[in-house]
Amino acid sequence: MPRAGSEFTGLTRIGIVVEDLGQQAIGCGLTRDGLEAAASKPFTDAGIKVARNADEDTYVHVTVMTSTLPNGMCISRYDWSIYAMTDATLSYQNRALLVQVLLAHKGGLTGSMPTVHSADVVRGMTDGLTQIAGIIRDANR
Fold first, then answer.
1. Which of 11, 15, 131, 141 has its CB 3.0 to 4.6 Å from that of 56, i.e. a possible disulfide?
2. Its pTM surpasses 0.85
3. Taking the CA of residue 44 as centre, how many other CA atoms within 13 Å lie in the half-sphere pointing to its CB?
């Protein structure tokens, strides 16, 4: 039986892709560059090479959807997923196809005023990314 995290054995490089942000997210202080930097840090801290917006077989995909309330409060749903691209033969076919495999996913919801909202989103997002970066690091010891 494979040990926990064995799907990350051999992974030394990961891509980071942050989806474009909507106007409400930008109005609440979020920036694509800021999210890319925050998503990259746990991996670089764990000794994993990071490529932003690069064509990596394994990558972190980050999405943030933001709404604002009438009192100005910002509410954001953030998600990150780690995907790998690989060849696989489906049970009903005889040729390998390029497929996307979900290796990990986590999301959350946070609400705060615009002055602190970006920091709240980053904190929530990077908590999970720090955990998974540690799992990847440990899988490659």
1. 15
2. yes
3. 11
